[in-house]
């Protein structure tokens, strides 16, 4: 890459500081042409912030700035990089950016700085994709997961797995090509063992990918139940704000209310629904229909029941409709005498998935938080500190690799010829290589970095 690019690296809008980033072989010459300070930008002042001013072609001061020169390959992009820190006003930023173009830089494309870091070997593809996840993190756990990816957590596991599979392919192909030579024979039992180990490793990554997606996008959660069981009170309690109107009149909530929040580090897209019941009220009926649609779209249902009353037919109908869905049953109003048979409910729906609480008194909400953590990460799992996929592309490639490994494993158990096994293994290697960028088409690379923001 023999051209030099420039872009505003900070977010659009007014701020105290703005940063213009320049990367490429002529970045120092361009910055030096604009920067006027007591000390000059150059190797003697590499990685040292210098105070000065940016001047235009007429010698007029544009802004008071700090500038730094970072020679490659020890820079973000692996190239010579200069950054100019000015006041964060729109005019100052745009004027300095325009001057960099006049001095020989071209506008950077979306994600081009990170793309250059990838092409120059500073980051692999999975690490580069984690950059956007760091920027878009919606919770502390999401940020931690993205940072683990950026530091190579996922890449190291994928590369280690690829090496084992590649060694197996080499041994199998040697046996195919040189059957009469004195080569250590690869037994089918050993092949099965290696494939089972690889399959288990990919299955773990696929399973963690679900948690990764939830951390990125939020867990779509619907609060459902019949009218007046405390759904809106639960929403307000979780949000710690009076977001929904609460009254003892059934049917108060007539439309769905959607809020985003974080519980125990898990980002939730929480929907409070109208009470699910048969009604002749036209407006309430529309709300019930929307509630059923929201429930259908949800990844998790929080089913609220009134513990001060026995289960009624509407409760049973709701529970029956959610028999095969992921759900947490919340027996509310524990501050009142308990009339609902909780033990029978636990026998029918699972002991772990029933929590008795009082939204009014705030009792039991800590159990809800722990349940959500176990639901996302897996009970007793180390996924909170483990690497996980960061996007649908990586998840899809892992699932494809898993299928190829399963096919190879089936073939090895059936003692199919080695060349049949290498076909599936080669496909698995290709899919895993696409995750880290070791084996990926140029058009996929372009498509990935086009999703980045300009300046990153």
UniProtKB/TrEMBL annotation:
Its cofactor is K(+). Residues 218-377 form the TrmE-type G domain. It is an enzyme of class 3 (hydrolase). Keywords: Cytoplasm, GTP-binding, Hydrolase, Magnesium, Metal-binding, Nucleotide-binding, Potassium, tRNA processing. Belongs to the TRAFAC class TrmE-Era-EngA-EngB-Septin-like GTPase superfamily. TrmE GTPase family. Its EC number is 3.6.-.-. It comes from Acidaminococcus fermentans. InterPro entries: G_TrmE, GTP-bd, GTP-bd_TrmE_N, GTPase_MnmE, MnmE_dom2, MnmE_helical, P-loop_NTPase, Small_GTP-bd. Homodimer. Heterotetramer of two MnmE and two MnmG subunits. GO terms for biological process: tRNA methylation; tRNA wobble uridine modification. PROSITE patterns: G_TRME. It is found in: Cytoplasm. K(+) binds at residues 228, 247, 249, 252. (6S)-5-formyl-5,6,7,8-tetrahydrofolate binds at residues 21, 83, 122, 456. The gene is mnmE. This is tRNA modification GTPase MnmE. Binds 1 potassium ion per subunit. GO terms for molecular function: GTP binding; GTPase activity; identical protein binding; metal ion binding. Its main location: cytoplasm. One of its GO terms (cellular component) is cytosol. CDD domains: trmE, TrmE_N.
């Amino acid at each position: 890459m023999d051209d030099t690019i420039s872009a505003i690296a900070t977010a659009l809008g007014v701020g105290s500081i703005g940063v213009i980033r320049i990367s490429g072989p002529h970045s120092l010459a361009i910055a030096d042409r604009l920067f006027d300070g007591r000390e000059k930008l150059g190797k003697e002042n590499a990685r040292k912030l210098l105070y000065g001013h940016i001047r235009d072609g007429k010698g007029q001061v544009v802004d008071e700035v700090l500038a730094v020169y970072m020679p490659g390959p020890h820079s973000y992009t692996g190239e010579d990089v200069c950054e100019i820190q000015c006041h964060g006003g729109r005019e100052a930023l745009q004027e300095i950016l325009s001057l960099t173009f006049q001095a020989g830089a071209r506008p950077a494309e979306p994600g081009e700085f990170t793309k250059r870091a990838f092409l120059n070997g500073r980051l692999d593809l999975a690490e580069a994709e984690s950059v956007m996840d760091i920027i878009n993190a919606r919770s502390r756990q999401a940020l931690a997961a993205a940072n683990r990816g950026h530091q190579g957590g996922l890449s190291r596991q994928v590369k280690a797995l690829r090496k084992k599979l590649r060694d197996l392919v080499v041994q199998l192909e040697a046996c195919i090509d040189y059957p009469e030579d004195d080569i250590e024979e690869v037994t089918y039992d050993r092949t099965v063992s290696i494939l089972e180990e690889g399959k288990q490793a990919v299955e773990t990554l696929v399973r963690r990918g679900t948690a990764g997606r939830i951390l990125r996008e939020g867990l779509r959660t619907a609060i459902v139940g019949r009218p007046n069981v405390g759904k809106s009170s639960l929403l307000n309690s979780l949000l710690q704000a009076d977001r929904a109107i609460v009254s003892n009149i059934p049917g108060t909530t007539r439309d769905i209310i959607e809020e985003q929040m974080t519980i125990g580090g898990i980002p939730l897209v929480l929907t409070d629904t109208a009470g699910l019941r048969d009604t002749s009220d036209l407006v309430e009926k529309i709300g019930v229909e929307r509630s059923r649609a929201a429930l259908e779209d949800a990844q998790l249902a929080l089913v609220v029941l009134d513990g001060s009353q026995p289960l009624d037919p509407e409760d049973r109908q709701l529970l029956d409709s959610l028999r095969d869905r992921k759900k947490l049953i919340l027996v509310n109003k524990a501050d009142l005498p308990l009339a609902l048979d909780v033990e029978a409910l636990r026998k029918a729906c699972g002991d772990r998935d029933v929590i008795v609480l009082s939204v009014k008194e705030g009792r039991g909400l800590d159990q809800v938080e722990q349940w959500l953590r176990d639901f996302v990460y897996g009970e007793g799992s180390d996924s909170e500190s483990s690497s996980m996929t960061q996007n649908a592309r990586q998840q899809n490639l892992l699932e494809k690799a898993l299928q190829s490994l399963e096919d190879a494993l089936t073939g090895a158990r059936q003692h199919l010829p080695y060349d049949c096994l290498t076909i599936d293994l080669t496909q698995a290697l290709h899919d895993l290589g696409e995750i880290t960028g070791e084996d990926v088409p140029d058009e996929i690379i372009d498509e990935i970095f086009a999703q980045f923001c300009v300046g990153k």
